Amino acid sequence: QVQLVESGGGLVQAGDSLRLSCAASGRTLSPYAIMGWFRQAPGKEREFVGAINWNTGATLYQDSVMGRFTISRNNGKNTLYLQTNNPEPEDTGVYYCAAKPSSSWLTGDRYQYPYWGQGTQVTVSS
In the list 36, 59, 69, 88, which could disulfide-bond 65, CB 3.0-4.6 Å? Predict the structure, then answer.
């Protein structure tokens, strides 16, 4: 089992920056794991934000966040990050991190991720 705990959410004004963190514990993440960020706005489906290959650092992003959001990781601390630059009100939602161990394929398909955190709320005001 992998336990994931998100932190860093809050209220931010459009154009400001916010960094989310996701600490992983329990089962050691395989060097070939994929870690992802998803978000869910009220009344909407949970959607893919971005993902990173834990070993290579290769990333994949949803088009709407490309160039504004950056995913990174600290392998020694087993921690995943999401840097949100120039957020917009449309980025408001609960942000979840997810893990897909023992796989090297980047994907935005949430059903491919068996492990999830509880989420952290991000609210972007205009």
Answer: 69
Answer for the pair 57, 64: CB distance below 8 angstroms, yes or no. Answer: no
Given a contact cutoff of 8 angstroms between Cβ atoms, the answer to whether 20 and 38 are in contact is no
pLDDT digits (tens, 9 = 90+) for 78-117: 999 999 999 999 999 999 999 998 777 899 999 999 999 9
Asked if 11 and 123 count as a contact pair (C-beta separation under 8 A), the reply is: yes
Q: Residue 110 burial (CB < 10 Å; 0-12/13-18/19+)? A: middle
